[in-house]
Amino acid sequence: MNTSHCLYSLKPKVHFQKHVLLEILYQLESGNDSIASPVLWDCSQNEDLMGRICRLGRKVDTRVITERVLEFYLIKAAILLRRHMKEHLDLDACSR
């Protein structure tokens, strides 16, 4: 920021951080007693999910795109849930 280089296209996190800081500054300057989290309006996770779903949709037959995308998404979610549960169950066993 101090060198006036435009790195927003290269560093999206810096761009987001700048928006967060500006939002906090505006809320502080307005004299509010409390500050709402700027992440409240963040939609980057939604955009990431939509990008993944779109890429998945391009890999399947267009006649059954809805069914296949939902199947693949639910399969991936089940795999991640099982992996998460297995890791946590292993941690519980170690703590005994």
How are the secondary structure elements laid out?
Blueprint: H1 12-29, H2 44-57, H3 65-94
Features:
mainly alpha, 0% strand, 96 residues, 65% helix, single chain, 2 domains
Task: Please give the domain count.
Answer: 2
Q: Report the total helices.
A: 3
- What share of the residues lie within helices? 55-70%
Overall geometry comes to: extended
Question: From the helix content, strand content and strand pairing, which structural class follows?
Answer: mainly alpha
The Rg value, from CA coordinates, equals 21 Å
Major sheet attributes: none
- N-to-C SSE series? HHH
List unreliable stretches of 5+ residues.
none
The chain-level mean pLDDT equals 78
Measure the end-to-end span.
51 Å
How many beta strands in the DSSP annotation? 0
Beta-strand fraction estimate: under 5%
What does this structure look like?
- This protein has helices spanning 12-29, 44-57, 65-94.
- With 96 residues, it is an all-alpha fold.
- The chain has 2 domains: 1-38, no CATH class; 43-96, no CATH class.
Can I get a quick summary?
The protein is 65% helix and 0% strand. It is mainly alpha-helical.
